[in-house]
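Subject: complex prediction, re-run

Hi both,

The earlier run crashed halfway through, so I resubmitted it with identical inputs.
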Amino acid sequence: MTTPVILVLDTDPSPRLGRLTGRAVVRYADERTLAGQLADADVLLVWDFTSDAVREAWPGDGPRPRWVHTASAGVDRLLCPELAASPTVVTNARGVFELPIAEYVAGLVLAFAKDLPRTLELQRQRRWRHRETRGLAGSRAVVVGAGPVGREIMRLLHGLGVQVALVGRTARRTIHGIEDLDRLAAGADWVVCAAPLTEETRGMFDARFFGLLQPSAHFINVGRGPLTVEEDLADALRRRWIAGAALDVFQEEPLGPSSPLWDVPGLLVSPHMSGDTAGWRDRLGEQFVSMYERWAAGEPLPDAVDMARGYPPSPDVPS
Amino acid sequence: MTTPVILVLDTDPSPRLGRLTGRAVVRYADERTLAGQLADADVLLVWDFTSDAVREAWPGDGPRPRWVHTASAGVDRLLCPELAASPTVVTNARGVFELPIAEYVAGLVLAFAKDLPRTLELQRQRRWRHRETRGLAGSRAVVVGAGPVGREIMRLLHGLGVQVALVGRTARRTIHGIEDLDRLAAGADWVVCAAPLTEETRGMFDARFFGLLQPSAHFINVGRGPLTVEEDLADALRRRWIAGAALDVFQEEPLGPSSPLWDVPGLLVSPHMSGDTAGWRDRLGEQFVSMYERWAAGEPLPDAVDMARGYPPSPDVPS
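This time it finished cleanly. Structure:
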Protein backbone atom coordinates (compact mmCIF):
# COMPACT_ATOMS: atom_id res chain seq x y z
CA MET A 1 0.00 0.00 0.00
CA THR A 2 1.39 3.42 -0.89
CA THR A 3 1.50 6.17 1.71
CA PRO A 4 -1.79 8.11 1.58
CA VAL A 5 -1.79 11.74 0.51
CA ILE A 6 -3.50 14.28 2.78
CA LEU A 7 -4.28 17.52 1.00
CA VAL A 8 -4.79 20.46 3.36
CA LEU A 9 -6.84 23.42 2.21
CA ASP A 10 -4.91 26.14 3.98
CA THR A 11 -1.84 28.22 3.35
CA ASP A 12 -0.20 27.70 6.74
CA PRO A 13 0.99 24.37 8.08
CA SER A 14 -1.74 23.00 10.35
CA PRO A 15 -0.78 22.13 13.91
CA ARG A 16 -0.13 18.53 14.93
CA LEU A 17 0.12 17.10 11.40
CA GLY A 18 3.81 16.58 12.04
CA ARG A 19 2.76 13.56 14.07
CA LEU A 20 1.77 11.85 10.81
CA THR A 21 5.28 12.05 9.35
CA GLY A 22 6.05 8.74 7.64
CA ARG A 23 2.41 7.69 7.76
CA ALA A 24 1.05 10.23 5.31
CA VAL A 25 2.24 12.66 2.69
CA VAL A 26 0.92 16.09 3.62
CA ARG A 27 0.46 18.65 0.85
CA TYR A 28 -1.05 22.12 0.98
CA ALA A 29 -3.41 23.83 -1.44
CA ASP A 30 -5.03 27.22 -1.63
CA GLU A 31 -8.29 28.13 -3.35
CA ARG A 32 -6.51 28.61 -6.67
CA THR A 33 -4.61 25.33 -6.72
CA LEU A 34 -7.16 23.08 -5.06
CA ALA A 35 -8.89 21.77 -8.20
CA GLY A 36 -5.62 20.63 -9.74
CA GLN A 37 -4.50 18.74 -6.62
CA LEU A 38 -7.72 16.94 -5.66
CA ALA A 39 -7.25 14.02 -8.02
CA ASP A 40 -4.05 12.89 -6.30
CA ALA A 41 -5.35 13.21 -2.74
CA ASP A 42 -6.73 10.39 -0.62
CA VAL A 43 -7.90 12.71 2.14
CA LEU A 44 -8.90 16.36 2.02
CA LEU A 45 -8.57 18.33 5.26
CA VAL A 46 -10.51 21.57 5.01
CA TRP A 47 -8.67 23.70 7.52
CA ASP A 48 -9.84 27.00 6.07
CA PHE A 49 -13.53 26.37 6.64
CA THR A 50 -14.55 29.83 5.42
CA SER A 51 -13.73 28.92 1.84
CA ASP A 52 -16.20 27.87 -0.85
CA ALA A 53 -13.34 26.35 -2.83
CA VAL A 54 -14.27 22.73 -2.24
CA ARG A 55 -17.73 23.16 -3.64
CA GLU A 56 -16.29 24.86 -6.69
CA ALA A 57 -13.41 22.45 -7.25
CA TRP A 58 -15.03 19.10 -6.46
CA PRO A 59 -14.71 16.77 -9.46
CA GLY A 60 -17.92 15.28 -10.80
CA ASP A 61 -16.21 12.10 -11.91
CA GLY A 62 -12.77 10.65 -11.80
CA PRO A 63 -10.34 10.31 -8.94
CA ARG A 64 -11.10 12.23 -5.78
CA PRO A 65 -10.45 12.00 -2.03
CA ARG A 66 -12.27 9.18 -0.25
CA TRP A 67 -12.57 11.23 2.90
CA VAL A 68 -13.14 14.95 3.49
CA HIS A 69 -12.81 16.35 7.00
CA THR A 70 -13.66 19.95 7.86
CA ALA A 71 -12.24 21.67 10.93
CA SER A 72 -15.61 23.24 11.69
CA ALA A 73 -18.99 22.29 13.13
CA GLY A 74 -20.98 23.37 10.09
CA VAL A 75 -20.51 21.63 6.73
CA ASP A 76 -22.55 24.06 4.62
CA ARG A 77 -19.52 25.52 2.81
CA LEU A 78 -18.55 22.08 1.53
CA LEU A 79 -21.66 20.36 0.35
CA CYS A 80 -22.60 20.34 -3.29
CA PRO A 81 -24.67 17.85 -5.31
CA GLU A 82 -21.53 16.22 -6.74
CA LEU A 83 -20.03 15.63 -3.29
CA ALA A 84 -23.39 14.50 -1.90
CA ALA A 85 -23.73 11.95 -4.71
CA SER A 86 -20.19 10.63 -4.38
CA PRO A 87 -19.08 7.79 -2.11
CA THR A 88 -16.74 10.16 -0.29
CA VAL A 89 -17.21 10.29 3.50
CA VAL A 90 -17.52 13.75 5.03
CA THR A 91 -16.82 14.41 8.73
CA ASN A 92 -16.82 17.50 10.87
CA ALA A 93 -15.16 18.72 14.09
CA ARG A 94 -17.74 17.22 16.41
CA GLY A 95 -16.81 17.67 20.07
CA VAL A 96 -14.50 20.65 19.72
CA PHE A 97 -16.86 23.60 19.53
CA GLU A 98 -19.95 22.59 21.51
CA LEU A 99 -18.90 23.62 25.00
CA PRO A 100 -17.18 26.89 24.01
CA ILE A 101 -20.22 27.95 21.97
CA ALA A 102 -22.58 27.05 24.80
CA GLU A 103 -20.51 29.09 27.25
CA TYR A 104 -20.53 31.99 24.81
CA VAL A 105 -24.31 31.85 24.51
CA ALA A 106 -24.69 31.68 28.31
CA GLY A 107 -22.47 34.76 28.51
CA LEU A 108 -24.60 36.64 25.98
CA VAL A 109 -27.85 35.71 27.70
CA LEU A 110 -26.49 36.83 31.08
CA ALA A 111 -25.07 40.02 29.55
CA PHE A 112 -28.52 40.89 28.22
CA ALA A 113 -30.31 39.89 31.43
CA LYS A 114 -27.93 41.98 33.51
CA ASP A 115 -27.87 44.92 31.05
CA LEU A 116 -24.11 44.74 30.73
CA PRO A 117 -23.74 46.61 27.41
CA ARG A 118 -25.57 49.60 28.95
CA THR A 119 -23.40 49.37 32.07
CA LEU A 120 -20.27 49.65 29.93
CA GLU A 121 -21.75 52.58 28.01
CA LEU A 122 -22.68 54.41 31.23
CA GLN A 123 -19.19 53.76 32.59
CA ARG A 124 -17.67 55.50 29.56
CA GLN A 125 -19.91 58.46 30.34
CA ARG A 126 -18.88 58.32 34.04
CA ARG A 127 -22.55 58.06 35.01
CA TRP A 128 -23.88 56.15 38.03
CA ARG A 129 -27.33 54.94 37.03
CA HIS A 130 -28.83 52.13 39.09
CA ARG A 131 -31.22 49.92 37.07
CA GLU A 132 -33.25 46.85 37.88
CA THR A 133 -32.08 43.83 35.89
CA ARG A 134 -33.72 40.56 34.91
CA GLY A 135 -33.61 37.31 36.80
CA LEU A 136 -32.38 34.50 34.55
CA ALA A 137 -33.72 31.57 36.57
CA GLY A 138 -37.25 30.76 35.49
CA SER A 139 -36.97 32.59 32.16
CA ARG A 140 -37.71 30.72 28.94
CA ALA A 141 -35.38 29.92 26.07
CA VAL A 142 -35.94 28.28 22.71
CA VAL A 143 -32.84 26.76 21.16
CA VAL A 144 -33.26 26.10 17.43
CA GLY A 145 -30.96 23.29 16.32
CA ALA A 146 -31.01 19.95 18.12
CA GLY A 147 -27.50 18.87 17.19
CA PRO A 148 -24.59 18.65 19.62
CA VAL A 149 -24.20 22.44 19.82
CA GLY A 150 -27.88 23.08 20.58
CA ARG A 151 -27.89 20.33 23.19
CA GLU A 152 -24.87 21.77 24.96
CA ILE A 153 -26.49 25.21 24.98
CA MET A 154 -29.58 23.63 26.50
CA ARG A 155 -27.51 21.91 29.17
CA LEU A 156 -25.74 25.09 30.31
CA LEU A 157 -28.84 27.30 30.26
CA HIS A 158 -30.76 24.61 32.13
CA GLY A 159 -28.04 24.63 34.78
CA LEU A 160 -28.69 28.35 35.21
CA GLY A 161 -32.35 27.66 35.89
CA VAL A 162 -33.67 28.57 32.43
CA GLN A 163 -36.60 26.58 31.03
CA VAL A 164 -35.27 25.45 27.67
CA ALA A 165 -37.16 24.05 24.70
CA LEU A 166 -35.03 22.43 22.01
CA VAL A 167 -36.34 22.55 18.43
CA GLY A 168 -35.08 20.23 15.72
CA ARG A 169 -36.27 19.38 12.22
CA THR A 170 -38.40 16.52 13.43
CA ALA A 171 -39.97 15.93 16.84
CA ARG A 172 -38.48 13.08 18.86
CA ARG A 173 -38.34 12.30 22.57
CA THR A 174 -37.79 15.60 24.38
CA ILE A 175 -37.11 17.56 21.18
CA HIS A 176 -39.79 19.67 19.53
CA GLY A 177 -40.31 19.55 15.79
CA ILE A 178 -40.07 22.71 13.70
CA GLU A 179 -43.88 22.91 13.66
CA ASP A 180 -43.76 23.96 17.35
CA LEU A 181 -41.30 26.80 16.80
CA ASP A 182 -43.73 29.70 16.34
CA ARG A 183 -45.70 28.85 19.44
CA LEU A 184 -42.60 28.36 21.58
CA ALA A 185 -40.91 31.49 20.26
CA ALA A 186 -43.95 33.62 21.10
CA GLY A 187 -43.47 32.80 24.79
CA ALA A 188 -39.69 32.91 24.90
CA ASP A 189 -37.35 35.38 26.56
CA TRP A 190 -34.38 34.07 24.58
CA VAL A 191 -34.31 32.59 21.07
CA VAL A 192 -30.98 30.99 20.24
CA CYS A 193 -30.10 29.75 16.76
CA ALA A 194 -27.61 26.88 16.60
CA ALA A 195 -29.07 25.25 13.50
CA PRO A 196 -27.18 24.04 10.43
CA LEU A 197 -27.47 26.05 7.24
CA THR A 198 -29.47 24.06 4.71
CA GLU A 199 -31.91 25.03 2.01
CA GLU A 200 -34.68 24.55 4.57
CA THR A 201 -33.19 26.81 7.23
CA ARG A 202 -31.84 29.63 5.03
CA GLY A 203 -33.60 32.89 5.92
CA MET A 204 -35.90 31.28 8.48
CA PHE A 205 -35.42 34.15 10.95
CA ASP A 206 -37.20 36.91 9.08
CA ALA A 207 -39.69 39.72 9.68
CA ARG A 208 -42.52 37.24 10.07
CA PHE A 209 -40.61 35.38 12.77
CA PHE A 210 -39.42 38.45 14.66
CA GLY A 211 -43.00 39.73 14.63
CA LEU A 212 -44.01 36.71 16.70
CA LEU A 213 -41.64 37.45 19.56
CA GLN A 214 -42.31 39.33 22.78
CA PRO A 215 -41.03 42.95 22.95
CA SER A 216 -38.77 41.84 25.82
CA ALA A 217 -37.25 38.94 23.83
CA HIS A 218 -33.64 38.62 22.66
CA PHE A 219 -32.41 36.76 19.59
CA ILE A 220 -28.96 35.17 19.38
CA ASN A 221 -27.41 33.54 16.29
CA VAL A 222 -24.30 31.40 16.68
CA GLY A 223 -25.21 29.06 13.80
CA ARG A 224 -24.61 30.47 10.35
CA GLY A 225 -25.24 33.98 9.06
CA PRO A 226 -27.68 33.21 6.23
CA LEU A 227 -30.22 31.74 8.66
CA THR A 228 -31.02 35.35 9.62
CA VAL A 229 -32.46 37.91 7.23
CA GLU A 230 -30.21 40.65 8.53
CA GLU A 231 -32.25 43.58 7.29
CA ASP A 232 -35.36 42.14 8.93
CA LEU A 233 -33.55 41.75 12.25
CA ALA A 234 -32.23 45.32 12.06
CA ASP A 235 -35.75 46.53 11.34
CA ALA A 236 -37.24 44.53 14.21
CA LEU A 237 -34.71 46.08 16.58
CA ARG A 238 -35.25 49.62 15.29
CA ARG A 239 -39.02 49.21 15.64
CA ARG A 240 -38.50 47.64 19.09
CA TRP A 241 -40.36 44.49 18.15
CA ILE A 242 -37.69 42.79 20.26
CA ALA A 243 -35.40 44.08 23.01
CA GLY A 244 -32.02 42.99 21.71
CA ALA A 245 -29.99 40.59 19.62
CA ALA A 246 -26.49 39.22 19.21
CA LEU A 247 -25.01 37.98 15.95
CA ASP A 248 -21.74 36.07 15.90
CA VAL A 249 -22.25 34.98 12.27
CA PHE A 250 -23.16 36.99 9.18
CA GLN A 251 -24.19 36.72 5.56
CA GLU A 252 -20.75 38.03 4.63
CA GLU A 253 -17.73 37.55 6.85
CA PRO A 254 -15.76 39.53 7.81
CA LEU A 255 -18.37 42.24 8.20
CA GLY A 256 -17.06 45.32 6.40
CA PRO A 257 -16.63 48.66 8.18
CA SER A 258 -19.47 50.16 6.16
CA SER A 259 -22.05 47.55 7.18
CA PRO A 260 -25.14 49.12 8.75
CA LEU A 261 -25.21 46.28 11.30
CA TRP A 262 -22.43 47.74 13.45
CA ASP A 263 -24.69 50.39 14.96
CA VAL A 264 -28.17 48.91 14.98
CA PRO A 265 -29.58 49.77 18.44
CA GLY A 266 -29.61 46.74 20.73
CA LEU A 267 -27.54 44.58 18.37
CA LEU A 268 -24.32 43.05 19.66
CA VAL A 269 -21.91 42.18 16.84
CA SER A 270 -19.04 39.72 17.36
CA PRO A 271 -16.59 38.34 14.81
CA HIS A 272 -17.50 34.63 14.46
CA MET A 273 -15.56 33.66 17.55
CA SER A 274 -18.07 31.90 19.80
CA GLY A 275 -16.39 28.48 19.51
CA ASP A 276 -12.79 29.56 19.52
CA THR A 277 -11.30 29.17 22.97
CA ALA A 278 -7.54 29.21 23.46
CA GLY A 279 -5.99 26.03 22.06
CA TRP A 280 -8.81 25.35 19.62
CA ARG A 281 -6.46 24.93 16.65
CA ASP A 282 -4.42 22.36 18.52
CA ARG A 283 -7.58 20.50 19.50
CA LEU A 284 -8.74 20.46 15.88
CA GLY A 285 -5.37 19.14 14.76
CA GLU A 286 -5.36 16.42 17.39
CA GLN A 287 -8.86 15.40 16.43
CA PHE A 288 -7.91 15.05 12.77
CA VAL A 289 -4.79 13.03 13.59
CA SER A 290 -6.75 10.58 15.70
CA MET A 291 -9.45 10.25 13.05
CA TYR A 292 -6.77 9.70 10.43
CA GLU A 293 -5.36 6.86 12.48
CA ARG A 294 -8.76 5.14 12.46
CA TRP A 295 -9.23 5.78 8.75
CA ALA A 296 -5.75 4.48 7.87
CA ALA A 297 -6.44 1.33 9.91
CA GLY A 298 -9.57 0.76 7.85
CA GLU A 299 -11.94 1.49 10.71
CA PRO A 300 -15.20 3.33 10.05
CA LEU A 301 -15.35 7.06 10.82
CA PRO A 302 -18.07 7.92 13.31
CA ASP A 303 -20.67 10.63 12.82
CA ALA A 304 -20.21 11.05 9.07
CA VAL A 305 -22.40 13.72 7.49
CA ASP A 306 -25.80 12.62 6.29
CA MET A 307 -25.70 13.89 2.72
CA ALA A 308 -29.47 14.06 2.35
CA ARG A 309 -29.97 16.19 5.43
CA GLY A 310 -26.79 18.21 5.10
CA TYR A 311 -25.50 17.68 8.63
CA PRO A 312 -24.08 14.92 10.83
CA PRO A 313 -26.57 12.57 12.50
CA SER A 314 -28.00 13.37 15.91
CA PRO A 315 -27.41 10.72 18.57
CA ASP A 316 -31.08 9.79 18.92
CA VAL A 317 -32.08 9.67 15.27
CA PRO A 318 -31.79 6.32 13.51
CA SER A 319 -29.71 6.82 10.40
CA MET B 1 -51.94 44.87 73.90
CA THR B 2 -51.49 48.09 71.99
CA THR B 3 -50.90 48.02 68.27
CA PRO B 4 -47.14 47.82 67.60
CA VAL B 5 -45.40 50.73 65.90
CA ILE B 6 -43.22 50.03 62.86
CA LEU B 7 -40.83 52.85 62.10
CA VAL B 8 -39.58 52.81 58.51
CA LEU B 9 -36.29 54.50 57.67
CA ASP B 10 -37.18 55.78 54.22
CA THR B 11 -38.93 58.79 52.80
CA ASP B 12 -41.23 56.91 50.41
CA PRO B 13 -43.94 54.48 51.48
CA SER B 14 -42.47 50.98 51.20
CA PRO B 15 -44.35 48.48 49.08
CA ARG B 16 -46.61 45.88 50.67
CA LEU B 17 -46.81 47.48 54.14
CA GLY B 18 -50.46 48.34 53.41
CA ARG B 19 -51.16 44.69 54.16
CA LEU B 20 -50.38 45.41 57.82
CA THR B 21 -53.14 48.02 58.15
CA GLY B 22 -54.93 47.51 61.47
CA ARG B 23 -52.16 45.23 62.72
CA ALA B 24 -49.41 47.82 62.99
CA VAL B 25 -48.96 51.56 63.03
CA VAL B 26 -46.53 52.43 60.28
CA ARG B 27 -44.52 55.65 60.60
CA TYR B 28 -41.75 57.01 58.44
CA ALA B 29 -38.51 58.68 59.44
CA ASP B 30 -35.58 60.16 57.59
CA GLU B 31 -32.01 60.51 58.76
CA ARG B 32 -32.80 63.78 60.50
CA THR B 33 -35.86 62.64 62.43
CA LEU B 34 -34.85 59.05 63.22
CA ALA B 35 -33.28 59.64 66.66
CA GLY B 36 -36.41 61.39 67.97
CA GLN B 37 -38.74 58.62 66.81
CA LEU B 38 -36.82 55.52 67.90
CA ALA B 39 -38.03 55.53 71.50
CA ASP B 40 -41.68 55.05 70.46
CA ALA B 41 -41.03 52.30 67.87
CA ASP B 42 -41.40 48.57 68.49
CA VAL B 43 -39.88 47.62 65.14
CA LEU B 44 -37.41 49.48 62.93
CA LEU B 45 -37.46 48.65 59.23
CA VAL B 46 -34.31 49.95 57.54
CA TRP B 47 -35.49 50.33 54.00
CA ASP B 48 -32.79 52.81 52.99
CA PHE B 49 -29.91 50.49 53.68
CA THR B 50 -27.30 52.97 52.42
CA SER B 51 -27.78 55.17 55.44
CA ASP B 52 -25.55 55.30 58.52
CA ALA B 53 -28.36 56.96 60.47
CA VAL B 54 -29.20 53.94 62.64
CA ARG B 55 -25.66 53.70 63.95
CA GLU B 56 -25.68 57.38 64.76
CA ALA B 57 -29.16 57.50 66.30
CA TRP B 58 -29.27 54.28 68.30
CA PRO B 59 -30.00 55.04 71.98
CA GLY B 60 -27.52 53.72 74.55
CA ASP B 61 -30.19 53.19 77.17
CA GLY B 62 -33.92 53.67 77.47
CA PRO B 63 -36.72 52.57 75.18
CA ARG B 64 -35.82 51.30 71.74
CA PRO B 65 -37.15 48.91 69.07
CA ARG B 66 -37.07 45.26 70.03
CA TRP B 67 -36.47 44.23 66.41
CA VAL B 68 -34.51 45.86 63.58
CA HIS B 69 -34.85 44.48 60.04
CA THR B 70 -32.72 45.71 57.15
CA ALA B 71 -33.82 45.30 53.53
CA SER B 72 -30.30 44.32 52.51
CA ALA B 73 -27.97 41.35 52.72
CA GLY B 74 -25.21 43.21 54.54
CA VAL B 75 -25.77 44.62 58.03
CA ASP B 76 -22.55 46.62 58.27
CA ARG B 77 -24.27 50.02 58.08
CA LEU B 78 -26.36 49.20 61.13
CA LEU B 79 -24.13 47.63 63.68
CA CYS B 80 -22.62 49.67 66.50
CA PRO B 81 -21.44 48.65 69.97
CA GLU B 82 -24.66 49.94 71.56
CA LEU B 83 -26.88 47.90 69.23
CA ALA B 84 -24.64 44.85 69.55
CA ALA B 85 -24.87 45.06 73.37
CA SER B 86 -28.65 45.54 73.41
CA PRO B 87 -31.26 42.76 73.49
CA THR B 88 -32.67 43.96 70.17
CA VAL B 89 -32.87 41.29 67.44
CA VAL B 90 -31.41 42.25 64.05
CA THR B 91 -32.42 40.45 60.83
CA ASN B 92 -31.51 40.89 57.17
CA ALA B 93 -33.07 40.17 53.78
CA ARG B 94 -31.83 36.60 53.58
CA GLY B 95 -33.16 34.81 50.51
CA VAL B 96 -33.88 37.83 48.32
CA PHE B 97 -30.50 38.75 46.87
CA GLU B 98 -28.54 35.48 46.70
CA LEU B 99 -29.67 34.19 43.29
CA PRO B 100 -29.65 37.58 41.51
CA ILE B 101 -26.14 38.29 42.79
CA ALA B 102 -24.93 34.83 41.79
CA GLU B 103 -26.34 35.29 38.28
CA TYR B 104 -24.68 38.68 38.07
CA VAL B 105 -21.32 37.19 39.07
CA ALA B 106 -21.72 34.37 36.53
CA GLY B 107 -22.44 37.03 33.91
CA LEU B 108 -19.30 38.98 34.82
CA VAL B 109 -17.12 35.87 34.80
CA LEU B 110 -18.44 34.85 31.38
CA ALA B 111 -18.10 38.40 30.06
CA PHE B 112 -14.42 38.38 31.05
CA ALA B 113 -13.84 34.83 29.75
CA LYS B 114 -15.44 35.69 26.41
CA ASP B 115 -13.79 39.15 26.17
CA LEU B 116 -17.16 40.86 25.86
CA PRO B 117 -16.13 44.39 26.91
CA ARG B 118 -13.52 44.38 24.15
CA THR B 119 -16.08 43.04 21.64
CA LEU B 120 -18.37 45.99 22.43
CA GLU B 121 -15.47 48.41 22.10
CA LEU B 122 -14.45 46.97 18.72
CA GLN B 123 -18.07 47.13 17.57
CA ARG B 124 -18.13 50.88 18.33
CA GLN B 125 -15.03 51.17 16.15
CA ARG B 126 -16.65 49.03 13.43
CA ARG B 127 -13.67 46.69 13.55
CA TRP B 128 -13.84 42.92 12.92
CA ARG B 129 -11.09 41.38 15.08
CA HIS B 130 -11.33 37.68 15.77
CA ARG B 131 -9.80 36.70 19.12
CA GLU B 132 -9.43 33.44 20.99
CA THR B 133 -11.37 33.46 24.22
CA ARG B 134 -11.11 31.46 27.44
CA GLY B 135 -12.91 28.27 28.26
CA LEU B 136 -14.81 28.62 31.53
CA ALA B 137 -15.23 24.91 32.31
CA GLY B 138 -12.23 23.66 34.25
CA SER B 139 -11.11 27.13 35.34
CA ARG B 140 -10.67 27.87 39.05
CA ALA B 141 -12.55 30.31 41.23
CA VAL B 142 -12.15 31.34 44.83
CA VAL B 143 -15.27 32.79 46.43
CA VAL B 144 -14.52 34.72 49.61
CA GLY B 145 -17.54 34.76 51.92
CA ALA B 146 -19.24 31.51 52.89
CA GLY B 147 -22.67 32.96 53.66
CA PRO B 148 -25.77 32.42 51.53
CA VAL B 149 -24.54 34.74 48.76
CA GLY B 150 -21.15 33.06 48.44
CA ARG B 151 -22.76 29.64 48.43
CA GLU B 152 -25.15 30.59 45.65
CA ILE B 153 -22.27 31.97 43.60
CA MET B 154 -20.46 28.67 44.14
CA ARG B 155 -23.50 26.71 43.01
CA LEU B 156 -23.94 28.62 39.74
CA LEU B 157 -20.24 28.65 38.86
CA HIS B 158 -20.00 24.97 39.66
CA GLY B 159 -22.88 24.33 37.26
CA LEU B 160 -20.81 26.01 34.57
CA GLY B 161 -17.96 23.57 35.20
CA VAL B 162 -15.80 25.91 37.29
CA GLN B 163 -13.78 24.42 40.15
CA VAL B 164 -14.84 26.59 43.08
CA ALA B 165 -13.22 26.93 46.50
CA LEU B 166 -15.32 28.70 49.12
CA VAL B 167 -13.45 30.60 51.84
CA GLY B 168 -15.06 31.59 55.13
CA ARG B 169 -13.75 32.93 58.41
CA THR B 170 -13.26 29.49 59.87
CA ALA B 171 -12.72 26.16 58.14
CA ARG B 172 -15.63 23.72 58.30
CA ARG B 173 -16.72 20.77 56.19
CA THR B 174 -16.16 21.80 52.57
CA ILE B 175 -15.37 25.43 53.39
CA HIS B 176 -11.81 26.67 53.61
CA GLY B 177 -10.72 28.89 56.46
CA ILE B 178 -9.24 32.30 55.78
CA GLU B 179 -5.75 30.85 56.36
CA ASP B 180 -6.07 29.05 52.99
CA LEU B 181 -6.97 32.17 51.01
CA ASP B 182 -3.50 33.20 49.84
CA ARG B 183 -2.66 29.75 48.55
CA LEU B 184 -6.01 29.33 46.77
CA ALA B 185 -5.97 32.84 45.30
CA ALA B 186 -2.51 32.27 43.82
CA GLY B 187 -3.92 29.48 41.63
CA ALA B 188 -7.27 31.09 40.81
CA ASP B 189 -8.59 32.45 37.55
CA TRP B 190 -11.44 34.26 39.32
CA VAL B 191 -11.48 35.74 42.81
CA VAL B 192 -14.97 36.76 43.89
CA CYS B 193 -15.65 38.72 47.06
CA ALA B 194 -19.05 38.17 48.67
CA ALA B 195 -17.88 38.63 52.25
CA PRO B 196 -19.52 40.77 54.92
CA LEU B 197 -17.83 44.02 55.90
CA THR B 198 -16.44 43.67 59.42
CA GLU B 199 -13.40 45.06 61.12
CA GLU B 200 -11.60 41.86 60.11
CA THR B 201 -12.44 42.08 56.42
CA ARG B 202 -12.08 45.84 55.86
CA GLY B 203 -9.30 46.46 53.34
CA MET B 204 -8.40 42.76 52.98
CA PHE B 205 -8.06 43.05 49.18
CA ASP B 206 -4.98 45.23 48.98
CA ALA B 207 -1.69 45.46 47.10
CA ARG B 208 -0.27 42.50 49.00
CA PHE B 209 -3.25 40.37 47.98
CA PHE B 210 -3.34 41.46 44.34
CA GLY B 211 0.39 40.74 44.16
CA LEU B 212 -0.34 37.08 44.88
CA LEU B 213 -2.67 36.61 41.89
CA GLN B 214 -1.86 35.28 38.45
CA PRO B 215 -1.48 37.89 35.67
CA SER B 216 -4.48 36.24 33.97
CA ALA B 217 -6.70 36.48 37.07
CA HIS B 218 -9.82 38.60 37.47
CA PHE B 219 -11.15 40.08 40.70
CA ILE B 220 -14.86 40.71 41.31
CA ASN B 221 -16.37 42.47 44.35
CA VAL B 222 -20.12 42.23 44.98
CA GLY B 223 -19.75 42.37 48.78
CA ARG B 224 -19.09 45.80 50.21
CA GLY B 225 -16.82 48.53 48.84
CA PRO B 226 -14.48 48.95 51.81
CA LEU B 227 -13.29 45.35 51.51
CA THR B 228 -11.20 46.53 48.55
CA VAL B 229 -8.43 49.09 48.78
CA GLU B 230 -9.51 50.80 45.58
CA GLU B 231 -6.23 52.56 44.86
CA ASP B 232 -4.36 49.27 45.21
CA LEU B 233 -6.74 47.56 42.79
CA ALA B 234 -6.37 50.40 40.27
CA ASP B 235 -2.61 50.13 40.61
CA ALA B 236 -2.65 46.35 40.15
CA LEU B 237 -4.66 46.76 36.95
CA ARG B 238 -2.44 49.54 35.58
CA ARG B 239 0.67 47.47 36.29
CA ARG B 240 -1.05 44.39 34.82
CA TRP B 241 -0.56 42.36 37.94
CA ILE B 242 -4.04 41.03 37.11
CA ALA B 243 -6.02 40.93 33.86
CA GLY B 244 -9.26 42.59 34.90
CA ALA B 245 -11.71 43.39 37.65
CA ALA B 246 -15.32 44.33 38.27
CA LEU B 247 -16.58 46.39 41.17
CA ASP B 248 -20.28 46.66 41.93
CA VAL B 249 -19.64 48.23 45.35
CA PHE B 250 -17.42 51.14 46.37
CA GLN B 251 -15.97 53.00 49.32
CA GLU B 252 -18.32 55.87 48.48
CA GLU B 253 -21.60 55.36 46.68
CA PRO B 254 -22.70 56.72 44.33
CA LEU B 255 -19.31 56.99 42.67
CA GLY B 256 -18.85 60.63 41.65
CA PRO B 257 -18.15 61.62 38.04
CA SER B 258 -14.62 62.71 38.95
CA SER B 259 -13.63 59.35 40.45
CA PRO B 260 -10.48 57.92 38.82
CA LEU B 261 -12.07 54.45 38.92
CA TRP B 262 -14.31 55.06 35.89
CA ASP B 263 -11.45 54.68 33.45
CA VAL B 264 -8.97 52.30 35.02
CA PRO B 265 -7.97 49.89 32.23
CA GLY B 266 -9.63 46.51 32.63
CA LEU B 267 -11.98 47.68 35.41
CA LEU B 268 -15.72 47.23 34.95
CA VAL B 269 -17.72 49.64 37.14
CA SER B 270 -21.40 48.99 37.91
CA PRO B 271 -23.71 50.96 40.25
CA HIS B 272 -24.40 48.55 43.16
CA MET B 273 -27.10 46.68 41.28
CA SER B 274 -25.98 43.04 41.30
CA GLY B 275 -28.87 41.87 43.49
CA ASP B 276 -31.62 44.07 42.13
CA THR B 277 -33.72 42.13 39.66
CA ALA B 278 -37.14 43.42 38.62
CA GLY B 279 -39.59 43.09 41.51
CA TRP B 280 -36.91 43.17 44.22
CA ARG B 281 -38.63 45.91 46.21
CA ASP B 282 -41.88 43.95 46.26
CA ARG B 283 -40.03 40.83 47.37
CA LEU B 284 -38.34 42.75 50.20
CA GLY B 285 -41.70 44.14 51.28
CA GLU B 286 -43.34 40.72 51.24
CA GLN B 287 -40.46 39.27 53.21
CA PHE B 288 -40.80 41.90 55.92
CA VAL B 289 -44.56 41.46 56.15
CA SER B 290 -44.26 37.72 56.62
CA MET B 291 -41.51 38.15 59.22
CA TYR B 292 -43.64 40.72 61.01
CA GLU B 293 -46.47 38.23 61.24
CA ARG B 294 -44.17 35.75 62.99
CA TRP B 295 -42.81 38.41 65.29
CA ALA B 296 -46.28 39.72 66.21
CA ALA B 297 -47.36 36.16 67.02
CA GLY B 298 -44.46 35.85 69.43
CA GLU B 299 -42.56 33.36 67.27
CA PRO B 300 -38.77 33.56 67.09
CA LEU B 301 -37.20 35.18 64.02
CA PRO B 302 -34.86 32.87 62.16
CA ASP B 303 -31.35 33.79 61.12
CA ALA B 304 -30.90 36.74 63.45
CA VAL B 305 -27.54 38.48 63.16
CA ASP B 306 -24.78 37.19 65.38
CA MET B 307 -23.70 40.41 67.05
CA ALA B 308 -20.23 39.16 67.90
CA ARG B 309 -19.44 38.14 64.33
CA GLY B 310 -21.31 40.97 62.64
CA TYR B 311 -23.33 38.84 60.22
CA PRO B 312 -26.15 36.28 60.22
CA PRO B 313 -25.22 32.70 61.07
CA SER B 314 -24.23 30.25 58.34
CA PRO B 315 -26.36 27.11 58.12
CA ASP B 316 -23.59 24.77 59.17
CA VAL B 317 -22.01 26.73 62.01
CA PRO B 318 -23.30 26.05 65.51
CA SER B 319 -24.35 29.36 66.98
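The CA atoms of residues 111 and 171 of chain B lie 31 Å apart.

- K.
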